[in-house]
């Protein structure tokens, strides 16, 4: 009798664990949940170290590739494994990889040749756009807006215009370019290891390795960097499981009219920005932290170029990382061309000395006072969502 | 669900393409079809598994079937609404 009860108890626990696993790694998380969680982790990064960004890491990687290939004599200041944004980017990629393995979605995905070319050009455009705007969709728009730097809104408008142009191109391409047949998917080799069964365990091992990594960093007096690895890992996991994608937020209103990702980015930005405002107002972090975006020429033009690039590539600063973690080989090309171009164009802009002409930083509370900062911040987000929701019903902006 | 004998009027192969191309091509193909016709879409993009059902729901098309095939791709059967 006792044994039976025990058996039943263990079975219930097993069921619970199974259900929990399925909830976390089989079903897709709702986008809005992804948005809320990303805002929370972004705020943790802000309090832990500095404002969350992506492109600084790409920049660092590009600098190192140029240096190691003897194409540049300037040795980068920071090693990739000590560079703050490089390590949080690496965390995002690793988090998505672990998450894709745990949910049995990891697979190297090959694409037709035209897609690789689009990935390459998309990366070049995004690298250039992010150099002009001093940030990608995350640092230049999402974090900038939350940090009350109005350059974020200039880039937001630019991203919308760029997404529109990029979508126009994709529609043109479907009509006018020969549609290559994709390579036939490889049939899984029979015999040997059953990868499908092993994948979740590898995912688990990566998760443990990241935790150990944090303590290794801490033991070398680099606790901050170790924390960024972990926070990046969380973001990668959240983004993969909720398929959180900034590109969608800017593209879908023109493509299918769907506004789900607009609402998800909006709720995320609302939480992120309101808490960041409190933190800055109370000097818990420096109020002018991360306020350096070139309003408006740099942010707007950078946003437009970046927006076209993200449509061609099918990924942005953050979603390129998590999609590479999922095994997307097209976006691996994008990652490399993005990093190299960003490094090259950034140093070119510095050397040409035209940074000043691209605009200067403007802090919203300096312009309108703290008392109007919050209402304006909220109003902009509300207007964005209301228009996107209206468009979802009427499809007025849908161009296809 | 899973009706193997369902005859598709058109087959669209998007294998190897990633977001947003499968969705764009599906939308374009559906535009050229008559109400009640069936399209069979093949794809390998993991995002399509959410996008295609959502799109069908929003635009009044009926997703008849969505199956992961052992060959390593997913097959969607959509009836135009």
What does this structure look like?
The complex is a heterodimer of chains A (400) and B (81). With 400 residues, chain A is mainly alpha-helical. Chain A contains 16 helices and no strands. Chain A has a domain at 31-50 and 108-179 and 230-394. Chain A has helices at residues 2-25, 31-48, 55-68, 84-102, 113-133, 137-146, 151-176, 195-219, 223-242, 246-255, 260-281, 297-313, 317-325, 329-352, 364-368, 370-394. The longest helix of chain A has 26 residues, at 151-176. The N and C termini of chain A lie far apart (67 Å). Chain B has a single domain (10-79), classed as 2-Layer Sandwich (Translation Initiation Factor IF3). Chain B is built from 2 helices and 4 strands. Chain B is an alpha+beta fold. In chain B, 41% of the residues are buried. At the A-B interface, helix 7 of A face helix 1 and helix 2 of B.
The N- and C-terminal alpha carbons of chain A lie at a distance of: 67 Å
Low-confidence stretches of chain A: none
Report the β-strand fraction of chain B as a percent range.
25-35%
Number of helices of chain B: 2
Order of helices and strands of chain A: HHHHHHHHHHHHHHHH
Query: What is the terminal-to-terminal distance of chain B?
Result: 18 Å
CATH class descriptor of chain B: Alpha Beta
User: Which two protein chains have the largest interface (Cβ within 8 Å of the partner's Cβ), and how many residues from each?
Assistant: A-B, 35 and 27 residues
Largest sheet of chain A, in brief, is: none
Q: Helix and strand string of chain B, N-terminal first? A: EHEHEE
Which band does the percent of strand residues of chain A land in? under 5%
Mass-distribution shape of chain B: globular
- Average pLDDT of chain B, rounded to a whole number, is 90
* SSE-based structural type of chain A: mainly alpha
Within CATH, the superfamily of chain B carries the name TusA-like domain
What structural class do the secondary elements of chain B suggest? alpha+beta
Q: How many alpha or pi helices of chain A?
A: 16
Low-pLDDT residue spans of chain B: none
CATH topology of chain B: Translation Initiation Factor IF3
| Order of strands in the sheet with most strands of chain B | 1-2-4-3
Question: Level of helix content of chain B?
Answer: 25-40%
């Amino acid at each position: 009798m006792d044994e039976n009860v025990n058996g039943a108890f263990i079975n219930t626990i097993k069921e619970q664990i199974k259900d929990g696993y399925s909830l976390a790694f089989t079903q897709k998380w709702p986008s809005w949940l992804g948005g809320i969680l990303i805002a929370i982790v972004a705020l943790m990064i802000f309090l832990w170290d500095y404002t969350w960004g992506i492109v600084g890491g790409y920049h660092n990687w590009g600098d190192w590739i140029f240096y190691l290939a003897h194409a540049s004599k300037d040795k980068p200041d920071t090693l990739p494994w000590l560079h703050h944004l490089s390590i949080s980017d690496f965390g995002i990629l690793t988090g998505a990889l672990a998450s894709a393995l745990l949910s049995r979605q990891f697979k190297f995905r090959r694409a037709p040749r035209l897609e690789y070319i689009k990935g390459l050009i998309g990366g070049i455009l995004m690298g250039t756009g992010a150099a002009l705007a001093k940030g990608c969709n995350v640092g230049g728009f999402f974090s900038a807006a939350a940090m009350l730097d109005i350059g974020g809104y200039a880039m937001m408008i630019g991203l919308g215009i760029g997404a529109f142009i990029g979508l126009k191109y994709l529609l043109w391409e479907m009509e006018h370019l020969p549609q290559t047949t994709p390579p036939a998917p490889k049939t899984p080799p029979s015999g040997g290891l059953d990868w499908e069964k092993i994948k979740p365990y590898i995912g688990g091992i990566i998760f443990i390795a990241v935790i150990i990594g944090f303590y290794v960093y801490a033991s070398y007096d680099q606790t901050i960097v170790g924390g960024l690895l972990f926070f990046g890992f969380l973001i990668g996991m959240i983004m993969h499981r909720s398929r959180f994608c900034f590109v969608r937020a800017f593209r879908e209103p023109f493509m299918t009219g769907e506004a789900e990702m607009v609402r998800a980015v909006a709720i995320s930005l609302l939480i992120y920005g309101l808490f960041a405002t409190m933190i800055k107002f109370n000097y818990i972090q420096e109020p002018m932290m991360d306020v350096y975006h070139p309003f408006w020429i740099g942010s707007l033009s950078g946003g437009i170029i970046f927006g076209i690039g993200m449509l061609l590539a099918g990924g942005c600063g953050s979603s390129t990382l998590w999609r590479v973690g999922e095994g997307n080989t097209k976006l691996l090309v994008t990652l490399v061309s993005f990093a190299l171009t960003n490094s090259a164009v950034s140093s070119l802009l510095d050397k040409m000395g035209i940074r000043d002409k691209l605009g200067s930083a403007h802090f919203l509370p300096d312009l309108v006072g703290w008392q109007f900062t919050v209402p304006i911040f909220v109003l902009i987000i509300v207007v964005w969502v209301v228009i996107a929701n209206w468009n979802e019903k009427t499809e007025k902006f849908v161009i296809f | 669900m899973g009706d193997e004998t369902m005859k598709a009027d058109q087959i669209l192969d998007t294998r190897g393409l990633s977001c947003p191309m499968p969705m764009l091509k599906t939308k374009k193909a559906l535009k050229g079809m008559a109400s009640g016709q069936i399209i069979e879409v093949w794809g390998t993009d993991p995002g399509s598994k959410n996008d295609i059902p959502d799109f069908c729901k929003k635009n009044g098309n009926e997703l008849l079937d969505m199956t992961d095939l052992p060959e390593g791709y997913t097959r969607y059967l959509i009836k135009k609404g």
